[in-house]
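in:
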């Protein structure tokens, strides 16, 4: 029944109507009807409908909101439209910094606009980089009309509907200098951080992450295997789960 209701409310047609009515500046009915500016070309109408009805990143926002430490700085990987950023920044102490990292350059102005509109006095920054581990200081990103489907274009595996452009690359280590909270939704690319940059997670006290089945170096990692890596190799404890969104925390004595 829930899936049926979702399909009725969140589809290309309803999203197109919502987009036309609100001129791509979409209110969120679960978030005090605050409006979020969306790009005309790099956000699908289905996503706009999800924003309007409150389904967009609902599990992620629900899980983080109930467990976020207001005293720790936050690094968010895959900030997308800045909707999760906007809500979570409002839960931090005023002087605590929030770093939004997004690889898609076409979304940067929307993240900044949405965060500033609803958190005018917040301490935050927006960086247009891809978290990647490569011999170059850049990577090729495939950008699609759906803001949730951007990917690093490895091995010439490019979606037929995507354009490809070069984006500055950075490691997580460059940001993780002191104890912090990490929010990550980078569509399976988190395996690169786990395998190449475990040291950057030593200072991470709280990890909120959406896990995806993913391939790395010719091996397929199921969600359960990624969960085991986070616990057994990276030293986190599993706290809560909401669908494919997980909350892990470091033990108090670590």
């Amino acid at each position: 029944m829930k899936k049926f209701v979702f399909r009725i409310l969140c589809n290309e047609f309803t999203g197109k109507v919502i987009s036309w009515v609100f001129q791509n500046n979409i209110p969120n009915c679960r978030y005090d009807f605050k409006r979020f500016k969306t790009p005309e070309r790099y956000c699908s109408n289905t996503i706009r409908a999800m924003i309007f009805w409150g389904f967009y990143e609902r599990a992620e926002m629900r899980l983080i909101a109930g467990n976020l430490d207001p005293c720790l700085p936050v690094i968010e990987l895959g900030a997308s439209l800045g909707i999760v950023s906007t809500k979570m920044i409002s839960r931090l102490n005023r002087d605590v910094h929030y770093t939004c990292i997004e690889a898609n350059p076409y979304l940067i102005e929307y993240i900044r606009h949405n965060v500033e509109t609803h958190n005018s006095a917040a301490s935050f920054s927006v960086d247009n980089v891809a978290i990647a581990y490569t011999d170059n200081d850049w990577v090729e990103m495939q950008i699609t009309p759906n803001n949730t489907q951007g990917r690093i274009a490895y091995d010439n595996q490019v979606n037929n509907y995507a354009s490809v452009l070069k984006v500055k690359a950075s490691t997580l280590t460059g940001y993780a200098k002191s104890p912090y909270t990490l929010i990550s939704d980078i569509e399976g690319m988190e395996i690169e951080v786990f395998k190449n940059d475990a040291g950057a997670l030593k200072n991470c006290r709280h990890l909120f992450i959406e896990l995806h089945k993913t391939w790395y170096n010719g091996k397929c990692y199921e969600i359960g295997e990624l969960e085991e890596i986070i616990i057994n190799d990276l030293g986190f404890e599993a706290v809560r789960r909401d669908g494919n969104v997980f909350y892990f925390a470091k033990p108090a004595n670590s």
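note: Residues 1-56 form one domain.
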